[in-house]
Specification:
Largest sheet: 9 strands, parallel
Strand order of the largest sheet: 2-1-4-11-10-5-7-8-9
Radius of gyration: 18 Å
Distance between the termini: 23 Å
Order of helices and strands: HEEHEHEHEEHEHEHEHEHEHH
Number of helices: 11
Shape: globular
Number of strands: 11
Helix content: 25-40%
Length: about 300
C-alpha cells in the first residue's frame, strides 16, 4: 500500500507525456525541453533544464522520468543530491557507460555520474544487451571499470575479451535469483551505505512489460526482492522506461535514434501506458523504507 505521505516525495518530470498523472503526485510540465534533451543533450541544454527544476529536485526524492531516452536525467538528479559517497545502483539491460562525445546521452550517463564528486561508485545490474558484445564492446568506457568506479553485473555469459579489457570490472551473474539476493546482501552493499537507485524497466522481461528498447530477463518479483534488500539504505530513486515516441526537428538526432534501434510498435498504447503506471506504483510501494529524517 502506498501512503499519501510517500506520494508527496514523488516528482513527475513530464517531458514526453508518457506518464499518467495523479493528483497526489507533483508533476512539472517540461515539454519545451524535449527536442534538446531527449536521447542526447549538450551540457549547456542540460544545465538550462537543471536551473528550471532545481528547487523541485531537492524537495523530492523519487523521480518518474518517462521514456528511457531520458535516462541521462539521472545524472542531473544524482548531481543535486546532498548526500556524499553515494553508491549508485542501476537496474538496466544496458551499461549506459558508452563512449559518446560532445555531451551526455542516455547510453553514456553512467560514465558522467561516476565522475561526480558525491558518487563513490556505480553498479549496473541486469545487462543482457549487445553493448558488451563484439564491436560494441570497445565503445564501453573501460577507464572507470578498471578503477572499480563502475561495475557491470551481466545476466548473460561474458566474453574473455570483456574480462580482459575491464580488468574484472565486468561480472557474470547467470545463476539463480536466490544467489543474486545473497550477493546483493553480502557483497554488493555495505552497512550504512547511501544508495541512489535508478531503474530502467527495460531490465525486465517483455512478458512483464513492454518498453521501446531491447529488454533483459529479470522478473518483477526478482526486481522487487532486490529493491527490498536495498530499501534501508536508499536515499533517492528514479524510474524510467515508459512509452512515448517523438519526431525530431533535428534530422541527425532523429537518424541516430533510429539507427540505435527501431521503436517496437504497440497496438494499444493507452493500455500499455496503464500497465506502466501500475508497475510504477508497485515499484514505489517497495521504496517505502526510505529514511526521510536525514534529508
Amino acid at each position: 500500500m502506498i501512503t499519501t505521505e510517500l506520494l508527496k516525495k514523488v516528482l513527475i518530470l513530464d517531458i514526453d507525456g508518457s506518464l499518467i498523472k495523479d493528483e497526489n503526485i507533483h508533476s512539472i510540465a517540461l515539454g519545451e525541453f524535449q527536442e534538446k534533451i531527449r536521447y542526447f543533450s549538450t551540457f549547456k541544454a542540460l544545465n538550462k533544464l537543471e536551473n528550471h527544476i532545481i528547487d523541485e529536485i531537492v524537495s523530492h526524492s523519487i523521480y518518474l522520468i518517462g521514456n528511457g531516452d531520458f535516462h541521462h536525467l539521472s545524472y542531473l538528479l544524482i548531481k543535486n543530491n546532498p548526500a556524499e559517497n553515494i553508491h549508485v545502483i542501476v537496474f538496466d539491460n544496458h551499461p549506459d557507460n558508452m563512449y559518446i562525445p560532445f555531451g551526455i546521452h542516455c547510453a553514456s550517463w553512467v560514465y558522467h555520474a561516476a565522475r561526480l564528486p558525491n558518487v563513490r561508485r556505480v553498479s549496473v545490474i541486469g545487462i543482457t544487451s549487445q553493448d558488451i558484445n563484439g564491436l560494441n564492446l570497445v565503445q564501453n568506457r573501460f577507464s572507470l571499470l578498471r578503477k572499480g568506479k563502475v561495475e557491470y553485473y551481466c545476466f548473460k555469459r561474458v566474453s574473455n575479451a570483456a574480462f580482459l579489457l575491464s580488468r574484472n570490472g565486468i561480472h557474470e551473474m547467470v545463476s539463480s535469483e536466490k544467489n543474486l539476493l545473497s550477493f546483493i546482501k553480502d557483497e554488493l552493499i555495505q552497512k550504512d551505505e547511501k544508495i541512489y537507485l535508478s531503474i530502467d524497466k527495460d531490465v525486465l522481461q517483455r512478458e512483464c512489460i513492454n518498453t521501446y528498447w531491447d529488454q533483459g530477463n529479470m522478473t518483477e518479483n526478482q526486481l522487487f526482492d532486490c529493491i527490498d534488500l536495498l530499501s534501508e539504505n536508499l536515499i533517492a530513486a528514479d524510474i524510467t522506461g515508459d512509452l512515448s515516441t517523438y519526431k525530431y526537428k533535428n534530422y541527425i538526432k532523429g537518424l541516430l535514434r533510429r539507427l540505435d534501434g527501431a521503436e517496437i510498435p504497440l497496438s494499444n498504447l493507452v493500455y500499455e501506458r496503464e500497465k506502466h503506471a501500475a508497475l510504477n506504483y508497485r515499484i514505489i510501494s517497495h521504496l517505502k523504507m526510505f529514511d526521510y529524517k536525514d534529508r
